[in-house]
Design brief:
Shape: elongated
Largest sheet: none
Structural class: mainly alpha
Number of strands: 0
Length: 208
């Protein structure tokens, strides 16, 4: 395949063709590096692709992007799309490990993470909350973020509100006294029969 065809195939919907193209790109790294250097912006753009498979393939070749000194990878942490943003945040440790960013930078862009905690995609939302606990331990989210977290403890959407309360049992950003003062927001979730009601009752029991 010609270089242009190889690069174009990195966006092919067919996983097999993409795999072959990436294998060819890896060989080019050793034999013909110049076309890849000229295509660094194109390779970076794959991290923003709307098709998950294309995006994940690009992330799986992060070492190559680092080798080519591709700049701006960290901007994915602030992407507008939840799916693109989550692809980056779930690899936050890897981004630090590869020297693309440091924890100071992660702290500086932490505001972009809140949207993931109330994402319209349930799978992303659930995974983002799980990672949130680790980010609290890393000191990325601290007591300074309590006002933003408070909004989630009072969120209009029941599934988001109960998830925020559930995770507070682990993150411990608020004192028990602070939680008791806003307990009616949790108790409100027990008024209608649902999975949320069961979760809320369990949390109330653990808080008592």
């Amino acid at each position: 395949m010609q270089v242009r065809e190889i690069l174009s195939s990195l966006k092919d919907p067919d996983p097999r063709r993409r795999r072959n193209a990436w294998n060819a790109v890896e060989r080019m790294k050793d034999d013909n590096l110049f076309p890849l250097i000229k295509s660094r912006l194109y390779l970076r753009s794959l991290l923003w692709n709307s098709l998950e498979g294309i995006r994940e393939d690009a992330w799986s070749h992060l070492d190559l992007l680092v080798y080519l000194n591709v700049k701006g990878i960290e901007r994915t942490l602030k992407a507008r799309s939840d799916t693109i943003k989550w692809s980056a945040w779930q690899r936050v440790n890897l981004l630090v490990e590869k020297g693309i960013v440091d924890w100071g930078y992660i702290y500086s862009v932490r505001d972009s993470y809140w949207r993931l905690l109330k994402s319209r995609y349930p799978t992303i939302r659930k995974k983002a909350w799980k990672l949130f606990q680790k980010l609290v331990k890393e000191g990325i989210f601290t007591e300074k973020d309590k006002p933003r977290y408070m909004n989630l403890l009072k969120a209009e959407k029941a599934s988001i509100r109960v998830m925020a309360w559930k995770n507070e049992l682990s993150t411990r950003l608020f004192s028990k006294e602070e939680l008791r003062n806003i307990l009616p927001y949790l108790q409100e979730l027990t008024k209608e029969d649902s999975k949320v009601k069961l979760e809320a009752e369990k949390i109330i029991h653990e808080l008592s």
